[in-house]
Every structure is written in structure tokens, then in C-alpha cells.
Amino acid sequence: MTAIADDRAATVRARSLFLQLRAGRPTREIYRRVVDLSVVAEDLGFTSIWLATRHFGAHHAAAPTAFPILAAVAQHTRRIRLGTAVVALPFENAVRLTEDAAVTDHLVDRRLELGVGKGLGFGHSASAYSAFGLSVDDREALYDRRLAELHDLLATGLVDGGVPICPSPTDIRGRVWQSTGNADTARRAGAAGDGLLPHPGSEAGRTTGIEAVVGAYLETADAATARVGVTLGVLPGVIEDLLDIDRVLSPDYYSGTTAASDPGRFLGDARVAHGSIDEVVTTITRTQAPERATEWLFSVPLTLEHPAYVDTLHTIATSLAPALDDAVAAVDRR
């Protein structure tokens, strides 16, 4: 993967899959479906999969940790990289997190990509902070402290007193990504040599915007090694039909939404580009700054058990991604 520079020089963008594990089905079936879809994604040429995690079932999420699921995926795949999206650092002991990441990285044959973040804003994480005995008001300070600890542990492989961590975690240091919608955090991520996962749905991201967050990151990042993974919510096809089935499969998820009465508005509010391939590409290029990424994380807003999910992955790999490549190449040449 060739890194992007701020002058938008031509680049090769990796195609990845961002998986939202939605609760509703028996949990073991959801996790097994992740393994099956990861095999499909690898066969279709996706570079990475990223697993979304949230604690205590927030936003109907079915996974509080990605590490054991990624280890299971690794037993059935050979090349695809395996990302956490994301570990909420304020809730973690940095030493234990480093140990878990190191063990996982060895199990998955050095394919781990370690995404970290603060937990969602807008008060959505307040209950999680409380459950961990923390105050959401300390979110920024806790994140900064844990991140500094994590960086040091991954760089040295040693805890205080010079005791080595086993197995060694030092290979992971160059595979850390920070998820944020905060421009100041993005600048610090660039200066630290971390990758960036700009988060438009975060409290800061809603007001800052992807372009500004990525721009802040590129102010301090080394242009030769900068990594920017932009998440692209996409639903190519007849959205009414797709969502009608999804509402039957996942009724709790849609409770109180406009998905039935106004599916276009529902998807638009969720920043999901939808419709024909041309419509999806036009929406993405207008709103998501795909030309500023080194990696596109395609996110399909359907429950993983949806009968059209695999077909949608095929459409992304064979039609949508190439069309987006062509559209962004035109931007790169300007």
C-alpha cells in the first residue's frame, strides 16, 4: 500500500471490510458468521477486516473485544489483515492490553492491526465509563495517559523495572491506528507515527468533518508512511428491498427509526451512500474525502446474516471499488 501525501499524489488504496457485529441472533452464530465472511472477503481480494467492538451491547453491538474473534478468523484465512475497531483505551490496563495484543499477533501470524480510541462521545459511552468505575469527564485525560503507556510498552517491550513482556509486542508498534474525530488528537497521531481512522460519527467528528481531521493528521505525519483508513458506509442496490428484509431479521435495531417510512433519509442520516453504483460513487466522492485515504474500509449496514450480504461484498469488490478507483484517480490527477 502506497501512502498518501497532502498534495494528493496518485496512490494505491487498499480495500478493506469493516464489520459491525449486530446483536439479535445467538452470539455463537454471529461470531461464526464473522469467520465465514472473512473467508469470503479474503477470496474477493479485500486487504483487511476490521471488527467493531462496544461494551455492554451499546448500539446493539455483539462484541466487547475483537482479539479472540480475530484469532478464530486467522485459523481459516492466510493473508487478510485483522484489525480492532477499536479498543477503547480508557477502559484498559495498558500492560494487559499489550499482552493480549501480543498473544493475538503471534496467533494470527503478525497480521494484527491495532486500532484504539476513546469510546463514543455524545454521552453514548457514559454508562460504559460508569460501569468501569470511571467518569466520562476524564475521557481525554485517560486516553492520553493510556496511549502514552501503550506506545512505551510496544516500543520497548518492557514494563517498569525492565521486566520484559512475553511474548514480545514490539513488532506491533508500527501497526497502531488511532480512531478520532478530534483534529488535535489526529495531529498527535501523525506526530507519533500512528495510522488514522477518522471517525465522522464521533462527537468531535460531527462538527470537525473528515477533511479537517485528515488534514490535521497530515500536517504532522510523515508523508512516506502516513496511513489513513476512511470508513465508507455503502449499500448498493434497491435499498427498500434490502432494508425490508433487514428489519425482519433485526427488528430491535430499527425500532423508532425512519427505515420503513423513509429509507433514503434513514441511510443518509447514517452517512451511508446508497443506490446505483454511480450514485454511491458520487455520494462518496462528494462527502467522504476518499482521495485522502490510503485504505477504504467498506461498511455494509446490514445484519451479517442478511441473505444479500455476500452478494453485496461481491458487488463492492467487482463493481463499486473499481468505479471508485476511477473516480478518485480523476481527483488525484487534478
Describe it for me?
The protein has 334 residues and is of the alpha/beta class. Helix content is 44%, strand content 16%. The chain contains 13 helices and eleven strands. The protein has helices at 27-43, 67-74, 94-107, 126-131, 139-156, 183-192, 203-208, 210-220, 239-249, 251-254, 263-269, 277-287, 309-332, and strands spanning 14-19, 48-52, 81-88, 112-117, 158-159, 163-164, 176-180, 195-198, 229-236, 272-275, 295-299. The strands form two sheets. A nine-stranded parallel β-sheet has the order 8-7-4-3-2-1-11-9-10. β7, α6 (183-192) and β8 (195-198) form a beta-alpha-beta unit. α1 (27-43) packs across α2 (67-74), α6 (183-192) packs parallel to α8 (210-220) and α12 (277-287) packs across α13 (309-332). The protein is globular. Residues 5-10 have low confidence and may be disordered. It comes from Williamsia deligens. This is LLM class flavin-dependent oxidoreductase. One of its GO terms (molecular function) is oxidoreductase activity. Keywords: Oxidoreductase. It is an enzyme of class 1 (oxidoreductase).
